[in-house]
Design goal:
It is a single chain. By secondary structure, the protein is of the alpha+beta class. The protein folds into 2 domains: 183 residues, no CATH class; 208 residues, Histidine kinase-like ATPase, C-terminal domain (Heat Shock Protein 90, 2-Layer Sandwich). It is 68% helix and 10% strand. The protein has 15 helices and 7 strands. The strands form 2 sheets. A 5-stranded mixed beta sheet has the order 1-2-3-7-6. A two-stranded antiparallel ribbon has the order 4-5. Helix 1 crosses helix 5, helix 1 packs parallel to helix 7 and helix 11 packs across helix 13. It starts with a helix and ends with a strand.
């Protein structure tokens, strides 16, 4: 195999590797797109052949950005509807990745068994290994990062963009890099350091924004849960009321008959029995806020169904520092967590105590409930049992923080306490 043959094969392998990695970063390296990608690759080879025949190999290498990279970016935009920015960054990233197998294969030069064919074979192997690693571990995360936001995309493009022009300017168009100039040699390390710092700041900002969106979503979900709870309670009350309204004529007829027959005592007992039955489905009055009453009545009924002891002490002030929906979300989330903790305990150990009042210029809300000893505190709250859980706790913390309050979660042996204070 001659030197020219090795160069031509290596040149084609590099192009195939670059196109495949670019498509992988762009998220279009799929079986259904293989025909298009093959067509793009053939078009690039044809253009390079035209340049080679017209201007020679040196001109082909120096004009690579024109006949290959710009054309590849345009093809991604036209054929796969990628944005120009995403297509450019994917192409520049792929160019940067091409240096990995090239750099590793150069180490073959320092072997006592060095040969040009040996270096070429090492290069081919490293191309395959690099492609497998990138495709398996890096391509999807990078593609997802490009979809986060325009700002994140720009920051991601800093290093490949700078490296691309630095490499061409210092090694292809000129040979400044090989002069040993300190400023030139230290340029890329400085850019990488600065880009890393910028990326860390932007990534932190994006994560914070994501958490805020999740908290807002959690609050909306819990407000929806409150509405559903109220609707269920009202639907149940309406159903029972219809039944009693239907039976009222029979009750009144029986009472009238008992009175006419002078069975006054029996009439009294019958009336008392019906009063108690009516009390069973009448919402209990824990406070003057109807919305909160329905929620507390719902959980009181839940406690009675699971034979759990409960105590609700509600003393609302005339003015509360948060909206009614936020207060209901706070209470419903805390009680949902509390009843979830007690439902798997033995009946004699189940209890939930709730207190809502004012204390020293603050709105005080506390929930004490029995629990097992598996609850762990991580950060500022209890650790969620599953990845999709924990929104209720985050909602409590979000509402509390929004109003400059404090939420304290404290597990003890067989007991869990939540205390929320919000300045009036």
């Amino acid at each position: 195999m001659t030197r020219i043959d090795i160069m031509m094969i290596r040149y084609i392998v590099t192009l195939l590797f670059g196109v495949a990695i670019t498509a992988s970063f762009a998220g279009v390296l799929q079986k259904k797109n293989m025909a298009k990608l093959a067509g793009i690759t053939c078009m690039l080879l044809l253009l390079q052949g035209v340049f080679f025949a017209s201007f020679g190999l040196d001109a082909v290498l120096k004009s690579y950005p024109i006949h290959t990279h710009i054309v590849l970016i345009g093809a991604l935009v036209l054929c796969f509807q990628c944005t120009a920015m995403d297509a450019a960054i994917c192409t520049l990233l792929a160019y940067m990745c091409c240096q990995i197998p090239a750099w590793i294969s150069r180490w073959a030069m320092y072997s006592i068994y060095y040969s040009r064919i040996g270096e070429f074979l090492v290069y081919i192997v490293m191309v395959l290994v690099t492609f497998w690693v990138i495709e398996k571990y890096a391509a999807t995360p990078i593609h997802e990062l490009l979809q986060v936001s325009k700002l994140a995309t720009i920051v991601m493009g800093i290093v490949p963009f700078t490296y691309y022009f630095f490499d061409y300017f210092t090694t292809v168009w000129t040979e400044i890099l090989y002069t040993g100039n300190y400023l030139v040699a230290q340029f890329m390390p400085s850019v990488i350091c600065a880009a890393y710092l910028v990326f860390a700041v932007v990534f932190s900002y994006e994560q914070k924004r994501k958490m805020e969106v999740m908290e807002e979503r959690s609050i909306l979900q819990n407000e929806l849960y409150i509405v559903e709870t109220q609707t269920d309670s009202l639907r149940e009350l309406s159903k029972i009321a219809r039944i009693h309204r239907h039976d009222m004529r029979h009750h009144l007829a029986l009472i009238l008959h008992l009175i006419e027959e002078n069975h006054v005592q029996e009439a009294r007992e019958y009336i008392q029995e019906n009063i108690e039955r009516i009390d069973e489905f009448t919402p209990r009055r824990f406070c003057e806020m109807e919305m909160l009453n329905l929620i507390l009545s719902h959980f009181a009924g839940k406690a009675e169904k699971m034979n759990a002891k409960y105590c609700f002490k509600i003393e609302l002030p005339d003015q509360i520092p948060i909206s009614k929906s936020e207060l209901c979300a706070l209470v419903s989330n805390a009680l949902e967590n509390a009843f979830h903790a007690v439902e798997n305990l033995p009946e004699e150990e189940r209890f939930v105590d709730v207190r809502l009042c004012t204390f020293k210029g603050k709105l005080l809300f506390s929930v004490d409930n029995s629990c097992d000893d598996q609850i762990q505190i991580t950060g500022n709250g209890p650790k969620a049992e599953k990845a999709e859980h924990g929104y209720g706790t985050r909602s409590i913390m979000a509402i509390t923080n929004e109003h400059h309050g404090m939420a304290i979660f404290q597990p003890k042996k067989g007991k869990f306490s939540l205390m929320v204070t919000i300045p009036l």
